[in-house]
Write a structure and sequence with these properties.
The structure holds 2 protein chains of 2 kinds.
Chain A lengths: L9 H39 L4 H18 L12 H4 L3 H33 L7 H16 L2 H12 L3 H25 L4 H8 L4 H35 L8 H9 L3 H35 L1
Helix pairs in contact in A: 4-5, 4-7, 4-9, 5-7, 6-7, 7-9, 8-9, 9-10, 9-11, 10-11
Chain B lengths: L8 H7 L1 H4 L3 H24 L5 H16 L8 H36 L7 H16 L2 H12 L3 H25 L4 H8 L4 H32 L11 H9 L3 H30 L7
Helix pairs in contact in B: 5-6, 5-8, 5-10, 5-12, 6-8, 7-8, 8-10, 9-10, 10-12, 11-12
Classes of the chains: A mainly alpha, B mainly alpha.
Chain lengths: 294, 285
């Protein structure tokens, strides 16, 4: 049967096939080695983290029944059948949710202001002094790596229970996270406008204001909005350590097994976060899209 | 400077009115937005007591607290050993959680990618459920899992796995959507089916991107794993919360230092691995 595909003669084909097989075998061996390392790491970690699959499969029924219980009222009916009973605490929860959003806003705004002033010091291309850059970088790293909740725990000791320590914790974490991102934005700018402004004899501040800032502003706003979205999510749990917001009611409901309250609050949180998510991503796309059109 | 030619600003303004006048509406809008934002910030700060005596008293107290944290000191060798063990546990939680989430997220990402899942309804529901998982914070998941499998690090692993499944699912689906269509078409044209198209056309292309995202999250999950202990889901957070609440502040600062070092180490290792995978590109997250 004549094949339309031209076949190489056997003599030429053999060495090609041999080298192909060798190359494939080498790659297989490499993949297997990586896989073996991962498996070993998983085994070791499983011992340390007390993972037991029998426990998971034995208790997985608990998970579904727990989720099921979340959606049942005390009277036994499904929550959707009696929304008034389900959301009996709506006024209080909405107030707390409002507080949570305001906490996220103030925390993000304060953090953004802090990060804004730090980023020009921390960017390699425009930093006025090498030591200023080092200090700004390390400070951002410290603020970023220590989890918000740890700051919140410490601030609760100092400022007492309430939203104030939560806002401060969020602001500090935001300074760290945004300081790094902002500095990266500044490092990626076109230096020619900055040089141009400096060449007219302008001070460093003026060079930053008229040379660097116009190139970075839309990215700054976009990152700040992204951070706001993240902060809304984390503000919902700051209440777990007594730092304000809806988390206080949520953890109480979870700990005291007020099942329908738990689901009511979580559904509220999910709706709020989704709305904020959609709104910020709309604004961000418009901002960045607008920049690309120029 | 003295004999600089004088600039006739008025004439230049006359010649380029476009650059000087214009965009008044946009400018007013920006100013109004900025003023509104600032007002809201000030109101918020007022509501939360930034301008009251609580704030200043608290600052003084905070100074005291920070003073008490220095020097970091675990107390005894016994406790230092205990802390080190729980740090290892934290890293183990983060590793297992990240890996588990990554494995579970691959099929989810394929489902949520509009170039793989052509059924609109399926695609929509996959997207929405990923968003729902993502909008619940990891600590809430940890609390729920503690109720299911009991206190301990296993609940932490499951919490990280659940919350990252949402993150990874979204990121993976975006990476898959950005993948080139042509390799798949090539495979389909040789008679390969859809599954083979995904296996040989899409996976080899997106795998390095996915792996780098997973490595990136390993570091941030280690940070999350340090706090889930606060709700009893294992790791170093339990000791940290206890040390802060019982005002053993030197131990607390020692623990924070341990966390900083561990996270920095993981950051370096995962960065090296990432560079090996995708070069010095930044990860899209």
């Amino acid at each position: 049967m004549a094949s339309p595909i031209v076949q190489l003669p056997e003599v030429q084909l053999r060495p090609l096939l041999v080298s192909y097989d060798a190359a494939i075998r080498a790659r297989r061996l490499q993949s297997l080695l990586v896989l073996a390392c991962i498996v070993a790491a998983v085994m070791l970690s499983s011992i340390s983290a007390e993972v037991s699959l029998p426990k998971l499969f034995g208790n997985i029924g608990n998970f579904t029944s727990y989720i099921g219980r979340l959606f049942h009222l005390d009277s036994g009916g499904l929550v959707f059948t009696d929304p008034v009973e389900w959301y009996w605490g709506i006024a209080r929860w909405l107030r707390l949710l409002g507080e949570t959003l305001l906490m996220a806003y103030v925390g993000t705004a304060l953090g953004t202001i802090g990060a804004f002033f730090l980023c020009f010091l921390g960017a390699a291309n425009v930093a006025p002094r090498p030591w200023a850059r080092l200090v700004a970088r390390r400070f951002c790293e410290l603020c970023r790596t220590v989890p918000e909740l740890v700051f919140a725990l410490m601030f609760v000791i100092a400022f007492g229970l309430g939203p104030l320590p939560g806002v401060l914790a969020m602001a500090i974490h935001t300074v760290g996270a945004l300081g790094k991102l902002f500095a990266e934005v500044v490092e990626n700018i076109d230096m020619k406008p900055v040089e141009g402004v400096s060449a007219t004899g302008a001070s460093w501040q003026a060079a930053m204001r008229f040379g660097a800032l116009p190139q970075t502003l839309s990215n700054f706003v976009s990152y700040a909005l992204l951070r706001f979205e993240i902060n809304v999510r984390s503000a919902t749990v700051l209440g777990f350590v007594g730092a304000g917001g809806i988390g206080m009611d949520l953890i109480e409901a979870i700990r005291k097994f007020y099942y329908s309250d738990v689901s009511a609050i979580i559904v509220l949180i999910i709706i709020t976060v989704s709305v904020i998510d959609t709104a910020t991503s709309y604004v961000r796309h418009r901002l960045i899209g607008g920049e690309e059109r120029h | 400077m003295a004999n600089r030619p004088s600039v006739d600003l008025a004439a230049i303004r006359g010649r380029h009115p476009h650059h000087f006048g214009a965009s008044g509406r946009e400018r007013r809008l920006t100013l109004a937005l900025g003023a509104g934002g600032l007002l809201l910030l000030l109101i918020g700060m007022g509501v939360f007591g930034f301008f009251g005596s609580t704030f200043w008293l608290g600052l003084g107290k905070l100074g005291e607290v920070v003073g008490l944290m220095i020097p970091p000191n675990p107390g005894s060798w016994n406790r230092a050993g205990l802390f080190a063990m729980s740090l290892v546990e934290t890293i183990a939680i983060s590793f297992l959680g990240t890996l588990g989430a990554a494995i579970l997220a691959v099929p989810l990402g394929l489902l949520a990618a509009n170039n793989v899942t052509t059924a609109k309804v399926l695609h929509f529901f996959a997207r929405r459920s990923l968003d729902t998982i993502r909008s619940v914070d990891i600590l809430i998941w940890a609390l729920i899992w503690v109720n299911v499998v009991g206190l301990g690090p296993f609940a932490g692993v499951l919490a990280i796995m659940t919350s990252d499944m949402g993150n990874f699912g979204k990121l993976f689906s975006e990476a898959i959507e950005a993948a080139d269509r042509r390799p798949v078409e090539g495979i389909v044209s040789t008679g390969g089916g859809r599954i083979l198209g995904i296996r040989f056309g899409i996976l080899p292309e997106v795998f390095p991107v996915l792996a780098s995202q997973v490595l990136y999250f390993f570091e941030s999950n280690t940070r999350s794993a340090t706090i889930i202990g606060i709700v009893g889901a294992g790791g170093i957070g339990l000791h940290l919360a206890e040390a802060i609440r019982t005002l053993e502040l030197q131990q607390a600062s020692f623990l924070i230092l341990m966390i900083l070092v561990a996270v920095a180490a993981i950051d370096i290792v995962s960065n090296q691995l990432r560079f090996a995978l995708i070069g010095r590109r930044s990860v899209v997250v």
